[in-house]
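Example record for the data management plan.
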Amino acid sequence: MTERREVYETLDLALRIGEVLLSSGAGAADVTVAMLAVTRACGVSHVTADVTFVNLTLRHQPTRDEPAAIQVRRVTRRPVDYAHLIEVDETLTSLVAGDITRAEARDQVARIVSTGHHRRRWAVTIGWGVMGTGIALTLGGGPVVCLLAFLAACAIDGTQLLLPLHRIPAFYQQAAGGFVATLVAVIASATELEVDPSRVVTAGIVMLLAGVGIMGATQDALTGFPVTASARLIDAVLNTAGIIAGVGAGLTVGDLLGVGLTTFTPGAAGPAEVGVTVFGAALAAAAFAFASYSPPRSLIAVALVAALGQGVLLAVDRSEVGRTWGSAVAAVTIGAVCYLVAGRFRVPALGVVVPAIVPLLPGLDIYRGLALFAEGKDGALELASALATALALASGVILGQYLAQPVKREAHRLETRLAGPHMVGPLRRRAGKDT
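Corresponding structural encoding:
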């Protein structure tokens, strides 16, 4: 009976760790590897794992003659907290290394998930505002545009804070955020301010797109988890559709009021503008990480990788290959260097990769497509370009991590352990695939 109880305690600990990783955006392969690493570290073998978008399942059956011990945990939606992710990852690493016992790991995980966020909510709102300012800089916005983008981002965060309290679905939360961003731009256009309000809308779109899990869906699809990938993709599509609906509603309101928001003229690409754009990308990525509760030590890593990615994008974008391929090359670069940078700052790669690609998200293409539809023209090509860019970013990051695997003499050994790029957790056996 005591042995059976220890098995259930081990499975429960593994499921709790897996829930934190999955809700933080980790791929199903990484979550599976992490949970099986916990069970092995606690001396429980013959365990199989099943990961879906909403459920985690562990089965333990040591022999064919014994009934299987099965535990299932429902994954609840929660705001991404990279501080919790980093602390749980450190606990997992210590457990696998034998530095702590199962009871100590269980107490640490319980403390992490029950203490709440470590950052004041007003500071998080300011972080989102700074992110909007950074995106506006990458678009060539001046001081007034940056201020409007800051205010729009803070207003969007307000909707994302209030609506979940009333259990409003994520689709309507995204729509409300898109509408608020566009409404700020409409009000600015109705004044005598000489600004391009479309940059404000685009900054709001990028902020909302940052919460869409397209990278997790792509990683799951590439690493053999089609069920989880499909669920995540549907969720991402619905959330993006909410953004489109909200911005479209805002453009309609502007049109009814006689305020046009359809024009956008990118700034010149001289040396000074390139420097401002790279700085804006670093600022936006670091602010996103800050608003997602990343610890201060990781903000430098995020800013460096984001600046590098933006620089690569600008360099490739000047050639004839197009912005989609430029985004792909930038994403490959980000994926290839994130391991080195993340390791030096003692954070999981996931906490660096996701914020670093935020400035590259295709908010401008989405806005252009909607603006064309508002004029009665066909904007499907721009929306298709936005989808292609998003997929290029997600797949490029993963490809970059494949390319950054250790030298050839270690490649075969790692290949037997991993089902794909490893963004969080210890290096252990190959993950099982879902059915």
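Summary line stored alongside the record: The chain is about 70% helix and 5% strand.
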